Amino acid sequence: MEDVLDSTLDLVRRLPPKDLKKNLSHLLKIRPEISEDLLQTVDQPLEVAVCPVTQKEYLLCDYNRDEDSYRSPHSNEFDPPLPGGSKPSDRLRNLEVIANEVFEVYAKQYYGEALSSCYFWDLEDTVFACCILIKKNAQSGSRGVESGGWDSIHIVEVDESESRTDPTYKITSSILLSLTTAAEGGEQTMSLCGSIADQREKRMKKSAKKDEEHVVNIGKFVEDMENRLRNTIDQVYFGKTTEVLASVHDRSASMRSGHGGARQKNAFAADLASVLRRRGGAKE
């Protein structure tokens, strides 16, 4: 079972993130016995729902789901209604409300028209966790963009067991990126998609009497991780793509001008003459 799961995860990492939902559906039909483990391990593009109480949009994930219902961070109610559904303690619900307000501002400052949702839950007496979600859809027609999206998923575990004034924060961050551009007239398209993840841990100062400082520390940690991963994406994905396109453009320009073809012919002729001279010398 473990080998099957590892092989499936290895395959998923090599498939385009924009087709992840469809590919997962196919894989689960082939090996339904790994459904639960696979869905818990693989990050999927975030989906959007509307809170029936406040009419505000929010993001769906496993961390606000109980059975087949999802809890809204705005009203703290499940949709569809689920009596006895799992909800955070009063302390964490207060932090959840503050975090949603803070990250709503954060998402708009960094991404413009973007949607964010935050969820908190208890783990142990001195440990709790939260999930910070951000979704940005690319605007069609902007700079040749046809479609695309950016999904940030940050899972933070907060451990106060050693010190309430110096807690340990452990963050696991994942970013899913997809982008499709179209040439003028829409005859040619180019797709760029991928995912990246990282995990960090550090201690941060917090006042013993100011619980909301947890949100400040988590916000700084998330911002640091997003900047780190954004720089990596810029270097790995966009940097390499730019390098390849520049190389193709230079080669095409050389071939059109005729200089590239002439250089290749001259080099081939020189190599051929050298080989013939060596063979002639051997025969003599």
From TrEMBL:
One term under GO cellular component: F-actin capping protein complex
Residues covered by region (Disordered): 70-89
A single GO BP: cell morphogenesis
Pfam family, one: F_actin_cap_B
Places the protein is found: Cytoplasm, Cytoskeleton
Role noted for this protein: F-actin-capping proteins bind in a Ca(2+)-independent manner to the fast growing ends of actin filaments (barbed end) thereby blocking the exchange of subunits at these ends. Unlike other capping proteins (such as gelsolin and severin), these proteins do not sever actin filaments.
Name of the gene this protein is made from: capz
Subunit description: Heterodimer of an alpha and a beta subunit.
UniProtKB keywords: Actin capping, Actin-binding, Cytoplasm, Cytoskeleton
Organism in which the protein naturally occurs: Stygiella incarcerata
Domain of life: Eukaryota
Protein name: F-actin-capping protein subunit beta
Main localisation: cytoplasm
Gene3D superfamilies documented for this protein: 1.20.58.570, F-actin capping protein, beta subunit (3.90.1150.210)
Gene Ontology molecular function: actin filament binding
PANTHER family, A to Z: F-ACTIN-CAPPING PROTEIN SUBUNIT BETA (PTHR10619), F-ACTIN-CAPPING PROTEIN SUBUNIT BETA ISOFORMS 1 AND 2 (PTHR10619:SF0)
InterPro entries, alphabetized: CapZ_alpha/beta, CapZ_alpha/beta_2, CAPZB, CAPZB_N, F-actin_capping_bsu_CS
Family from the record: Belongs to the F-actin-capping protein beta subunit family.
